[in-house]
Amino acid sequence: MNDRAQIRMLPDGRRLHMQDGPIDVIVEAFGAIGEIEVAYRAAAVRFVGVLDALCGELAFLRRPACEDGCLPEGAIARRMLAAVRPYASRIFITPMAAVAGAVAEEILEVMISAAKLSRAYVNDGGDIALHLAPGEKFVVGMVERPERASLFGTTTIESRDPIRGIATSGWRGRSFSLGIADAVTVLADTAAMADAAATVVANAVDLPGHPRVGRVRACDLAPDSDLGKRLVTQSVGILAPDEIRDALEAGIRVAESLRGSGLIRAAALNLQGETRVVVPVETGLAPSPSAATEDGASSVSTRKAEGWSRSVDATVPDGSPVHA
Predict the structure, then answer these.
(1) 3-state secondary structure (DSSP) of residue 29
(2) CA-based angle 102:32:106, to the nearest 5?
(3) Nearest-CA neighbor of 130 among 240, 27, 278, 25?
(4) What is the CATH number of the domain that holds 277?
(5) pLDDT tens string 38-89
(6) Would residue 323 count as lying in a domain?
């Protein structure tokens, strides 16, 4: 029996917070009160076993992914592997690159299987799985400086869009990065796909060998890291405008390739105040000073540590802000 998991409603009375070890999830569901209660109970029951199941297959999940071969046993582990396999023949990547998105997906799936919801999101440390019933939508905002609510991009995701996953990666986040992006936010068909792709694109935003980029072997920071002796970014000094441009261009090339192959739908890359986007015109993702909420759509912000918190801000239909 897992007695570590902490599960509680947040003070706003609408969102559920679940934490177990490194897994920190915020859930919000929309619909009839009874349906929301059923969904939250299902989420809580499923969450209790998540960490133990992942730990049981950790040796497999930390190994480099391959295009074929044996599959892990757990549903979340299989989601992780499926999300990273498209990259296996080209780069070093392990299923751990998709762990947060896969957890978010799994929790969301049990919720919408148990209850009839109009909308829902599961945010696992900034990697978000979305549910939208027909006719519903979310407004998504990417927050650069949470303390000032400064947004560097917004987009509206509607039920007819294929996007159901959002993820952010960068050297300032809670996971190691090989690149120097402050943040790369990706929109994809699933949260696990977005999680893996955000990792790949953020790693590509880089200036190899630059003297103002501090790097340390991953194993020196975390002996059990799946990245082993690979150098991970620990500091980035002030860069010249042309250096910022070059680093972002490197990431843009990778992001465009992923969009061309259907692995992502859009991406926003941010480095030292400069933002570049890879996006089809119809999504409307673009740098914006605010995230206006229209027609009662909820607003979901992707944020991570040190400039990117691990919480979600939601705007309810009357427009009042709610903070985790």
Answers:
(1) strand
(2) 10
(3) 27
(4) 3.10.520.10
(5) 999 999 999 999 999 999 999 999 999 988 878 899 999 999 999 999 999 9
(6) no
What residues contact residue 70 under an 8 Å CB cut-off, 6+ apart?
Answer: none
For residue 216, give the amino acid letter.
V
Euclidean distance between CA atoms 43 and 323, whole angstroms:
21
**Is 324 within the bounds of a domain?**
no
Do the domain assignments include residue 1? no
pTM above 0.85, yes or no: yes
Residues 6+ apart with CB under 8 A from 152: 142, 143, 144, 268, 270, 275, 287, 288
Cα Rg, the chain, nearest whole Å:
19
Domain range spanning residue 295? 6-317
pLDDT tens per residue across span 225-263: 999 999 999 999 999 999 999 999 999 999 999 999 999
Distances (CA, A) of 272 to 110, 136, 235: 39, 34, 12
